[in-house]
From TrEMBL:
Native source species: Cannabis sativa (Hemp)
Residue ranges annotated for the PPM-type phosphatase domain, each copy included: 48-284
Name of the molecule in the record: PPM-type phosphatase domain-containing protein
Lineage: Eukaryota, Viridiplantae, Streptophyta, Embryophyta, Tracheophyta
Gene3D superfamilies in the cross-refs: PPM-type phosphatase domain (3.60.40.10)
SUPFAM superfamilies, alphabetized: PP2C-like (SSF81606)
Length: 285
């Protein structure tokens, strides 16, 4: 089957960014940022790709429901902060706006101290919006948002809600927050992370026996070390088509994060994923 026959189309979209971000507004084929930094900073590059399901375009409207991708970099004296995020259109820019107004203007010491707390509060606000605006069970199950703060290249603060998730690749192994086991899951039992999980009650509709997936706010902190290779942020359309370790295996050999993001999206299309496909890859060079 040719790709053109699949219920997806590439969607040119606007890279939404917060003020002072250092991403060019113009659409580029290669969306990757490399910045010369002091020796104490870990070099970071990134790439992203979005494919929008034609089923998500509202009939009779020019406005689509494509996911939004946000990239922002700030530097405060000896502190560098990257903020990466992918959000479903139903959720909007709630997380991004909260981070902008409650975090990016703080003093360096306060940023380090409050990063996890700020991420948690941002996603608690998004959780409330989901409960108020998304009434249908199936729509709530597909909606979500995932964000990562990279602080000085040595600390990751990860937050997500719904089926939008982040996976950290360490020495070829996929590690991710698992709400069932209350830690970052990986085949290596000695590795662990700290996170907060807030569960939303599942919803039932009449006599329908289908139960929606519980939407949870997960916030975790992980250190970047010599084994940390890259981080994958991706939407439901990726994770309904493949497992985290499959995604890592598929992209690990690709040094260009833009190429890796495109490869991941194309694989999800090949596997007939039915929802919006968005992925952002952060590589530690």
């Amino acid at each position: 089957m040719a790709l053109k026959d699949l219920p997806f189309k590439l969607k040119g979209f606007r890279l939404k960014r917060l003020p002072l971000g250092e991403v060019n507004k113009k659409k580029k084929k290669k969306r990757e940022v490399r910045i010369c930094k002091p020796s104490w900073m870990t070099p970071i590059s990134h790439g992203y790709h979005v494919v929008e399901s034609t089923q998500s375009i509202r009939v009779g409207s020019d406005e689509s429901e494509a996911d939004s991708v946000v990239v922002q970099r700030e530097q405060f004296d000896q502190l560098e902060v990257w903020f990466f995020g992918i959000s479903d259109a139903k959720i909007g820019d709630g997380v991004n706006n909260y981070i902008q107004s409650h975090f990016m203007d703080k003093k360096p010491k306060e940023i380090r101290r409050r990063s996890k707390e700020t991420m948690k509060k941002a996603y608690m606000g998004v959780r409330g919006k989901m409960r108020e605006t998304i009434q249908k069970t199936e729509e709530r199950a597909k909606a979500g948002s995932v964000s990562v703060m990279v602080i000085n290249g040595d600390k990751l603060v990860i937050g997500n809600i719904g089926e939008y998730k982040a996976v950290v690749c360490k020495n070829g192994v996929a590690r991710y927050m698992n709400p069932q086991h209350k830690h970052f899951s990986s085949p290596k039992p000695h590795w662990s992370g700290r996170f907060l999980s807030v569960r939303m009650l599942s919803c039932h509709s009449g006599n329908n026996t289908m139960q929606s997936k519980s939407s949870e706010v997960l916030v975790g902190v992980e250190r970047v070390d010599s084994d940390t290779e890259f981080v994958i942020l991706a939407s439901t359309g990726i994770w309904e088509a493949m497992k985290p370790q499959e995604a890592v295996n598929l992209t690990r050999h690709l040094e260009d994060p833009q190429e890796a993001a495109e490869c991941l999206a194309k694989e999800a299309i090949t596997r007939m994923s039915k929802t919006n496909i968005s992925c952002l890859i952060i590589r530690f060079d």
